[in-house]
């Protein structure tokens, strides 16, 4: 039915209701015997009623509303239009006031009733999932939250074409709602009654319909739900839908980040725009988990050019294609290069002259770097040195390096290599016009090789999850959260800082494994076993965020803090960097113990767990590199003192 036909049908129906109301009033008043004089005046009155009512309904746009989803706004408009119509008719065609009161009430009842009747008829008989198919719903759903969001969930479930869920009851903590019903469903108690409600109503699915609930309380509520056998779903917040984090829909599965119980980091978009917009920005490691998300978020701030530097051509090809599809006006330049190649880096910096550099390229897997310490030195230390030197030589405005909480009191090669990279960045900053800074955070949920994708794959393929130790804990954050911290740090950077995110409480790995098993629809230790394998080389039970000497200083952001600079100068660090370069470039093969010893010379708090700690300590004291294995280094440009 097109718009004109709809207007005609509804107009005729409504005018018929008004005219019937006028006739009914006279029949009741005169006990079915209307006097001839009154009957003669009825046609004129009916014309006035029909014409004025149609005009009022049109002015209030009652015929342009979708009554299938009618709410208080439609009811208010109907009352206003009918009241105005009867007031005008009374003024233009005076008669008994009781007539117009009767017609007003009859109009409201008739017009409102007709719309409601059609809505019920449509839901029952015309929609494919109407009452005729109600018997196909096989799972009982309990809704937590008897508010507007809970009503939305119930209505959507009843309208859904294929949902097997049958909403049966509400839980709500508001005392005033207890014992009432909503949408035909009882409100049976507060969250304390959750376990009893699941058992009594044979609940298969719990839907948390409180999108405004803070993350910490959401996590607590999820923990309560996990004590039952029901699966858990969440109603997403409007912010999640708008940002594209979740698709538009009434409910979604519980995600791992919901279990962290921490509000996400808020980014000051204004500060970011001032140092990114309209400038050339370089991202190293642009094809990695963090690097690619950096590119996605930086693209929103309209840089003049976005340089995507990476060693793997496939990952760079993928992020370039994604950015060109999402931001067709963005100028992005794919650059295949190895950060260990100083000559290539200098050529790139000379050609493109980036104003901002985000250094995300690194080797990050702890067990792999324990077995290949020379590669960690080449990439994480010497590669960072190369990129930092190029940034300094070409007058880059800001340089932000991504570090790790494993750099604090390190026990692994990966961790100590990141700590030396931090010291290097701080040392160069003290002698450069470039603002150098590092950002330190914990494990990133969903990044390549991280624990969550590993657990998910094990659940899917093996039906068993391996955890190193029952007491192992880690700090966690999401990829977008980590990237927002990095970008925000670039705005805060005055030079030489190590920025740290307040990540709240660490999470036990075994608890995370059990949560993932439940979210996959299985029961831990029954459907999916958890096997402990022992701590791997380089790992420790817990990570720290600050060294003893760093302390902590707050920034203007209440979730980001600054560790104090180490005080190590570039002149002090330079000979040791040359020594590392000589060792990994020499024809003589240095043993892992010797390489670890060289690293411990720079970072005395490094306590290796691979091999004998005592052997490494002695080797560090006696370490000597013969002159004939030192490799020539290119002339170093004079570092400029910042003014």
Defining traits:
4 domains; Rossmann fold; 5-stranded mixed sheet; 9-stranded mixed sheet
CATH class of the largest domain: Alpha Beta
Strand content: 5-15%
Query: Into how many domains do the coordinates divide?
Result: 4
Total number of helical segments? 21
Largest sheet: 9 strands, mixed
**Cross-sheet strand order for the largest sheet:** 10-9-8-11-12-13-18-22-21
Number of strands: 22
Which class of secondary structure composition applies to the elements?
A: alpha/beta
What is the H level of CATH, i.e. the homologous superfamily of the largest domain?
NAD(P)-binding Rossmann-like Domain
What is the architecture of the largest domain at the second tier of CATH? 3-Layer(aba) Sandwich
Shape: elongated
Fill in the CATH topology of the largest domain.
Answer: Rossmann fold
Low-confidence stretches: 128-135, 241-250, 624-643
Q: Fraction of residues in helices? A: 40-55%
Q: How large, in whole angstroms, is the Cα Rg?
A: 35 Å
Arithmetic mean of pLDDT: 81
Distance between the termini: 74 Å
Quick structural overview:
The protein has 643 residues and is an alpha/beta fold. It is built from 21 helices and 22 strands. Residues 128-135, 241-250 and 624-643 have low confidence and may be disordered.
